[in-house]
Amino acid sequence: MKETKKKEVLYTIGEVSKICNISKKTLRFYDSIDLISPDVVSKENGYRYYSQRTLLLVPVLKYYKQMGFRLEEIQGLLKGSNYSNMVNTFRNKLEELQKREREIHDSRVSVNDWYRLADEANLVRENQVKDISVKYLESVTYGWQEQDFDYSYADSIINIQWVNYLESMDAMITGPVILHYASYQDKVRGLSKRVKIMQKPIVPYKKELNVMTLENRLVISTYHIGDLATIDERYQDLEAWAEKKGYVCAGDCFERHVIDYWTTSNADDYVTEIILPIRERID
After folding, report:
1. pLDDT, mean of residues 189-214
2. Of 9, 175, 223, 247, which residue has the fewest beta carbons closer than 10 angstroms?
């Protein structure tokens, strides 16, 4: 520390570093980009000296960084501006942070959904869950697109047409891919030529997007573990179980792909829930 002729106290870069808890390297960098510069640079040895007023810029800069401002934005704020410019700067930053907040929210929803799918699949595989159960599905809205189907599951699940369609509509989806077949019997017999691919939205879909709401339905379901080439065998188990319990299969069916080509290349790890809508038989 030294005093100028006017008795103004000046601080060395080392003193500023200790007082403000900031590295000398960072202070030198701030000087190089004209963000916070020393008030005096010694001609003899190149030492940097900072005034009390300049030293006080450091906590202000730290606070702006905490708010998410970039260094180039802070540059303008530290140099001072009129109220109008200041209001615009803060408004723009608020809009930017709100956009980032939405993006983080959307990412969190997707990651959480995939985590839950992985956890579900892990429990199914560890316990070899293959029981058949009756469920009551609540009303859910999905985005959908109908496409040709040739029993190439990889092409239908990692679906380029579907992804391109969603991008064109600026729509974001989450959760498992669900394939809907108009007839489970045709599906099992290899006669299905069309399929609807369905997924849930992260935010409400736009009106232009194809949407469908599956109303409350009574269904039976079971899991298929492993390669999808053998999935149709499980339909026979479902059909027999429904007959035994006094239910009639409604006709259509859903395959909810819990773990599939999106997350693993090992077919033995695939887990798929087969869902058949039913109604009670009236003799």
Report:
1. 85
2. 9
